[in-house]
Amino acid sequence: MEGKSHLSPVSASNERKVLKLIEEVSTRALKRFSTTYEEDSEILKDEKRAPRYSWYRNAILARSGEKSTFIAYQNLAKIMIPLLQCGSVMKLKSHPEYKK
Question: What is the pTM of this model?
Fold first, then answer.
């Protein structure tokens, strides 16, 4: 392993399974919050409700940061799982989610 900065994927199938698990865990985690990411964003826009530098605002910022991470993982899985199912470079390049 000396000199390598990464490990190669085991297989496309394995990568899809891992991404599906990440997506499922992220979805479960988001359901445990009492508010949505969008609701947190609305709270943060209202400085009367969440005054600058207040502990409440900082808590909402931290919570929305966690949610944005889970949402990013969901989006990653949503895009990558279909791409990993393409099976060939030609199919991959013709997939609507493929971007150069």
Answer: 0.79
